[in-house]
Design a protein that fits this description.
The complex is a heterodimer. Chain A has 17 helices and four strands. Chain B is α/β, with parallel strands linked by helices. Chain B folds into two domains: about 190 residues, P-loop containing nucleotide triphosphate hydrolases (Rossmann fold); about 70 residues, no CATH class. The chains are: A mainly alpha, B alpha/beta.
Chain lengths: ~400, ~270
């Protein structure tokens, strides 16, 4: 290696070490980034899993809330034979349902229920729910099925007394087979994970990228820095390396934070759906590390044009918006994956990570496209910062 | 030894007179920051670059530090051309620029050592040098403190130590006494006088200022810059003799604002 090369690398390494030290000493920012980006994904996952678990628990819970149960002993008998527990509704159940304090629909029995049934007058039994109350609304179908079961039983008995076969009433049988329910919900939640991870990588890079460029300008330390005989490209490479490393560190932490998080999942369905092991974490990183490198360079390129940290923050909103909006393409676009998706940064990473979560994985040729795109972006960003550095120092 | 010959630099400033929401840009006007600056600063002497605000001192020193490429003229440091070999020239210079931002999360020592290593020094050598400079600039107590919360004088000392870490033969200071109190200014003056002596290394020191007393007390020779031109140079005594004034301030005003006086006199004569 020639002398010029060693001095280039030495300068880049010196800058790299200094920027890493500097960033790691910014404890407060570091803690905020760690809490908000690394912890957020797992926390949301756990919160949603307990939400789903409560749904599941309610579905399994065999309870029916009734007003005036004493008016219908035969119905009570039916409920109990179906192993349901009868609960008496509170007096102000309508108010409670409206305010979502009561999570079950309420069955209201009319007066003279038993006599009316005997006379064949078909009394009206109300199932009171509130369509704005999601929990009660969810249980409403279950209660209606239960009640129609009672009607069918009475009808069958009446027919049997008259010697008519019950099958005449049911010329065909309908059976429900649900493919979605909790599974769909689980995919909706795991589908959010790539987004959280992308945001973590972004916020990992953001502060350091702004501090090493616009921050340096604002402090007035860029001008003296350039009065050292080190090459500008070496200075920029050192800075970029430090920013990219921090972003990658956050990427690694956030990917591996899902490993312990899934032990805490309360919902069995979600646990079955969310298969995130070491292999998945490593595949995530294969996608994310090049992205972190590119994102760091792009953020630095945006920030070097700004005189102050604040101005840089305002300008970097464009990048943040891009990273958060581009993955939405897959949500709105029902046409499924297209080839060009892999060419768009953020969208490509999102697509590949979603595939990993679905258990599909991806091939070498699919991951090479986004890596190439990231490499080009990185080179362009670093080149731009190096080009702008001298002009930025004096203005 | 620093030599500057017929240096010139124009800037394009965007026109400020914009009418309404016009998207058409009016033609930028040319600001002649530096037109004809020449001087030579020998080793073992302190050369003062004296001029009013906006005379082109900072632009000249920025060109010398390779931050701005001049439109015309030449600069050399110990015979090395700044424009064609900027990094070699920078290695022979310690520049304390107008902007002297420090890294607030690093200690004074780390700030100094960082620059030493960027100058190509070994880590141990840079640490040793930081301690020697702290001794000279009387800032030993500051060395391990983070620079966040430093006073103006403490910042200035740290920035100066940072600029001198590689023991350069040429020292360039842009308005070093700005914002310093009397004691800090005195300490700086003593340090510069020491650096000029053979024991201090016989450095070539160039410093820009707009303060007369600085020049009178410190400088071996003075270069008066006004409107981007060198208008006079020599020792304080020579300049006094040239203008026939007793007071250096009067002499400076006459030299630096000669054009304005001429115009004022012409206007007075016309009236």
């Amino acid at each position: 290696m020639s002398i010029a090369n060693t001095s280039f690398l030495r300068a880049a390494w010196t800058v790299y070490c200094k920027e890493i030290t500097d960033a790691l000493r910014d404890r407060r920012t570091l803690i905020v980034v760690l809490l908000s980006s690394v912890m957020l994904g797992p926390l949301v996952l756990i919160a949603l899993s307990s939400f789903i678990a409560s749904f599941e628990a309610r579905a399994e819970k065999r309870e029916v809330v009734v007003m005036h149960m004493e008016r219908a002993p035969s119905l009570k008998n039916y409920f109990e034979r179906q192993t349901y527990t009868v609960k008496t509704a509170p007096a102000d159940f309508e108010m409670q349902l409206r305010k979502s304090r009561l999570g079950d629909p309420v069955v209201v029995i009319p007066e003279d229920f038993e006599d009316s049934v005997l006379r064949g007058e078909a009394p009206v039994v109300e199932v009171v729910s509130d369509s704005a109350n999601k929990q009660a609304e969810g249980g409403s179908h279950r209660i209606q099925r239960l009640l129609s079961g009672f009607s069918r039983e009475r009808a069958t008995l009446n027919l049997a007394v008259r010697g008519v076969s019950a099958e005449l009433l049911e010329p065909m049988q309908v059976e429900e087979r649900d493919l979605a329910s909790t599974q769909t919900r689980a995919t909706q939640i795991t589908g959010m994970l790539p987004f959280f991870v992308l945001m973590a990588v972004l916020y990992g890079a953001l502060n350091a990228a702004l501090d090493t460029t616009a921050g340096e300008r604002e402090r007035g330390s860029l001008e003296p820095l350039l009065m050292n005989p080190a090459e500008r490209a070496a200075l920029v490479l050192g800075k970029w390396g430090a920013v990219a490393c921090l972003s990658m560190l956050i990427a690694v932490l956030s990917c591996f934070s899902f490993l312990p998080a899934q032990w805490l999942l309360q919902s069995d369905t979600l646990q079955a759906m969310f298969q995130f092991g070491l292999r998945e974490a490593l595949l995530f990183l294969a996608v994310l590390l090049p992205f972190a490198a590119a994102l760091s360079a792009v953020l630095m390129a945006v920030a070097i044009r700004c005189r102050t940290f604040k101005e840089a923050q305002a300008n970097s909103t464009v990048v943040i918006l891009g990273v958060s909006l581009l993955p939405l393409f897959t949500v709105f676009n029902e046409g499924g994956e297209a080839g060009w998706h892999l060419m768009v940064p953020a969208l490509a990473q999102n697509t590949l990570m979603t595939r990993v979560l679905k258990g599909e994985g991806f091939g070498m040729e699919q991951v090479l496209v986004p890596i190439a795109v990231c490499a080009v972006l990185t080179a362009m960003g670093v080149w731009f910062v190096a080009r702008m550095l001298r002009a930025a120092a004096v203005r | 030894m620093i030599t500057i010959d017929s240096l010139a630099k124009n800037f394009l400033a965007p026109s400020t007179t914009k009418r309404g929401l016009s998207f058409r840009r009016s033609a930028p006007h040319v600001v002649k920051a530096v037109q004809q600056v020449s001087f030579s600063a020998p080793n073992g002497r302190i050369t003062g670059l004296l001029g009013p605000n906006g005379a082109g001192k900072t632009t000249t020193l920025r060109m010398l530090a390779g931050l701005i490429t001049p439109d015309a003229g030449s600069m050399s440091v110990d015979g090395i051309d700044v424009v064609s070999r900027p990094r070699e020239a920078l290695a022979r210079m310690g520049v304390l620029s107008d902007a002297r931002g420090l890294y607030p999360r690093l200690s004074a020592r780390e700030n100094i050592v960082y620059y030493g290593m960027l100058q190509g020094m070994e880590r141990e050598a840079a640490h040793a040098r930081a301690e020697a400079l702290a001794q000279m600039l009387e800032m030993k107590a500051l060395l391990e403190r983070r620079t966040d919360g430093f006073s103006q004088g403490e910042r200035m000392k740290t920035a100066l130590a940072r600029a001198l870490v590689h023991d350069p033969a040429n020292i360039v200071l842009d308005e070093p006494t700005n914002g310093l109190d009397v004691l800090a200014t005195r300490a700086l003056r003593d340090a510069l006088r020491f650096l000029r002596t053979p024991e201090g290394g016989g450095k070539c020191i160039v410093f820009s200022t707009h303060i007369m007393q600085e020049v009178e007390r410190l400088c071996d020779s003075v270069v008066v810059v006004s409107h981007g031109r060198t208008v006079a140079s020599g020792t304080v005594g020579e300049l006094l003799a040239q203008t026939g004034e007793e007071d250096f301030e009067e002499a400076f005003v006459e030299l630096a604002f000669a054009e304005e006086f001429k115009q004022a006199r012409a206007a007075g004569a016309a009236a």
